[in-house]
Amino acid sequence: MSQAETAVAGAGRAPSPLWTFGILRSELTTTLRRWRTLALLGVLAAVPVLIGIAVRIETGDGSSPGPGGGGGGPAFLSQVTNNGLFLVFAALAVTLPVFLPMAVGVVAGDSVAGEANAGTLRYLLVAPAGRTRLLLTKYASVLVFCLVATLVVALSALAVGALLFPVGEVTTISGTRIGFGEGLLRAGLIAVVVAASLIGFAAVGLFVSTLTGSGIAAMAATVGLLITVQIVDGIPQLSAVHPYLFPHYWMSYADLLRDPVHWDEVVKNLGLQGLYAAVFGSAAWARFTAKDITA
Amino acid sequence: MAPNDSAGTDGGTRGTAAGRRKAARYIVPVAVAGVAAATIGLVPALANSGDPDLPKISAQELIEKIAASDTEQLSGTVKISTDFGIPSLGGLAESFAPGGAGGKGGSSADPQERMTELASGTHTLRVAADGPDKQRLSILDNASEYSLIHNGDQVWAYDSKSDQAYHATEDRVGKDAGKKSGHPVPEGVPTTPQALAEQVLKAAGPTTSVTVDGTAQVAGRDAYKLVVKPKQSGSTIGSVTVAVDAENGVPLKFTLLASSGGKAVVDAGFTRVDFSKPDASSFTFTPPKGTEVTEADDAKAQHKADKSLDGLIPGAEELGAGGQDAKDTKVIGEGWNAIAEITTPGGTGLPSKESGDVPAEAQQFLDALGDKVTGKFGSGTVFKTRLVNALMTDDGKVYVGAVTKDALVRAANNAS
Fold first, then answer.
1. pLDDT-derived band at A44, boundaries 50, 70, 90
2. pLDDT tens for each residue of A52-99
3. C-alpha dihedral over B302, B310, B254, A175, to 10 degrees?
């Protein structure tokens, strides 16, 4: 028996890179093929369509968007009529505070707890992958979902923006002009930065997911935590803790649209996300590898 | 049964050992968090220590250095924090005029309206200059930016939030913009730097102490600190510190401390500075198609730009205000303790309840803003900020100065 165990463990270790890709792939297909996930992505894709049509109708008679032409409403909205590319930035500005992290929270919260809930976690652990590697795979697939979700918003916005509004040279928010190609490049970079902004929150969700055996409880706790932190981030009296809250620098992606790019806060944001990923990722590891799996 | 029993006891001891090992795993996240916290706490402290070692220099030599500076090209990021002790101006303005800046008839890209924002809170600015003809200044907002671009005889302002632009054509506007946006080109200085330094020190003479107080690191550059302090008491200004680049004499940081202590009233300094030629494209602006452009007629533009740019050096406007209307204005005292006495034309002071032209709420609001004082001059209201105080007497005189409340009352008593 013990010989067999070591043999299996050895067999599991030997082809390790390919094997890891194998579970990552199966993990990804299960995650992305779920109806729940597809519905989430569908909602995310619908947001830019909604904004685009609303702005188009509002400005159809040549008036400026928003009441009184003021700077109200979400960021970048007033530039959308000049350049469809700005719909990408506007859509990300609208979805980043709530929709995107909520989708990520659902997927991350469900990642481990959902398996435990459905009674499939023990079968996953029977496979000789080891708990650490399983957890890493789970986290990797959540991160891939972050990127996919962001790209769905961005691409849907790009398509709608190009259909409904003129595209061409981009005026940066600093007032300088860059070509459409560079504008697209920056949009791509922004999508990646936005996806990376969710890394920390994904780690928090994963940690919460290892704490409970109920998928619903984990999702609710993760999303509840997100809302709580967002509220704390909005209270000016608590400004001392703001720089340490994971959503605090989320909107810093807009700094990539300045010319020259203002990196300070983008770097701070990425550093903070890395820190959250390290702390909560290792906490999830500590919990998951030491946990009694009963289901 | 026996094997089972032994397994049970074994399991027990193994259980506690495993439990300890399990608990030990939690050290990892705690350690990561601890290291991060320590890094966040220690790095700024380490970075701040160690002022650069620079050769000693006298105040006169330092002023000469500033005056002789011929740096015409620079770009950088400026952080400006102001705390005049005025409750948030932005919020106040918004509550009076719902709809914000854009709703007030004009363009939200109008420089005058935007520059007043700088008078409270913390802002990040970007400046770039290339000679006397090309400058730009941008206020970095959340996900938007307000840029003021001067190129030759063109002045553009662009507000990306509302997508509105403001355009003015006038040579003089630009020149002033250049000088006042922190750009140190000493145009039109008639004398040699040395003469100028002497002149400055002589003028400062009896009322002001000008010293060089050590060195500092600003935006990664070595700098001398020039400290200007009033010698008289009674001023609300504690000290003014200017950090000057040791190499090329460009002022890098400006700090104004109130005599009452506490946070700096104005703290403006480069967080990043680069003395190479900025990209030419940053000085060109073509309004994007569909952007609403407000054209300023020239006279108005000049007036506005001048005034708004004064706002860049917050306090300058208030301090200088007394001198501009020479007609009904007297200046009492000299140097830092100068108090402007302004006689309002109508001879009426603050609108009172009896006059009936002010709603009761507004009257209450005005009363809440000021402190009632009485003295030989009668009675009046003192409006206080951390820097500038004003006394409005009930018989229509206004005393304004960067002096304490007591000094204002004394001046009013002496004048009556």
1. very high
2. 999 988 876 655 544 444 445 677 888 888 889 999 999 999 999 889
3. -50
**Which residues of chain B make contact with A264, given a CB cutoff of 8 A?**
77
The CA distance from A29 to the nearest CA of chain B, in Å, is: 30
Q: Closest approach of chain A CAs to the CA of B328, in angstroms?
A: 40
Q: What would the two tokens of residue A241 be?
A: 């803790």
Place of tokens 């027990």: B12
Identify the CATH class of B319-415. alpha beta
- In CATH terms, B59-202+260-314 corresponds, of 3.40.50, 2.50.20, 1.10.287, 2.30.29, to 2.50.20
Are A74 and A92 spatial neighbours (Cβ–Cβ below 8 Å)?
Answer: no
User: What are the tens digits of pLDDT across the range A109-128?
Assistant: 999 998 888 888 888 888 77
In the structure, how many helices (H) and strands (E) does chain A have?
Answer: 11, 2
Query: Measured between CB atoms, which of A171, A176, A282 is closest to B28?
Result: A282
CA distance B66 to chain A (A): 28
Instruction: Give the start-to-end residue ranges of the domains of chain B.
Output: 16-49, 59-202+260-314, 319-415
Does any CB of chain B come closer than 8 Å to the CB of residue A261?
no
CA distances (Å), A279 to each of A10, A105, A285, B165, in order? 31, 17, 10, 46
Q: Which of A209, A169, A157, A180 is nearest to A51 (CA)?
A: A157
Residues 337-366, chain B: which have Cβ within 8 Å of A?
none
Q: What is the complex's ipTM, to 2 decimals?
A: 0.76
Q: How far is CA A2 from CA A5, A13, B21, B148, in A?
A: 5, 16, 23, 76
Q: What is the pLDDT of residues B44-80, one digit of tens each?
A: 766 665 677 888 888 888 888 888 888 888 888 988 8
**Whole-number Å distance between alpha carbons of A230 and A25:** 33
Nearest chain B alpha carbon to A260: B282
Contact B114/B305 with Cβ under 8 angstroms? Answer: no
Q: Which of A68, A278, A289 comes nearest B102 by C-beta?
A: A68
- Nearest chain A alpha carbon to B281: A176
* Paired strand residues for B130: B73, B134
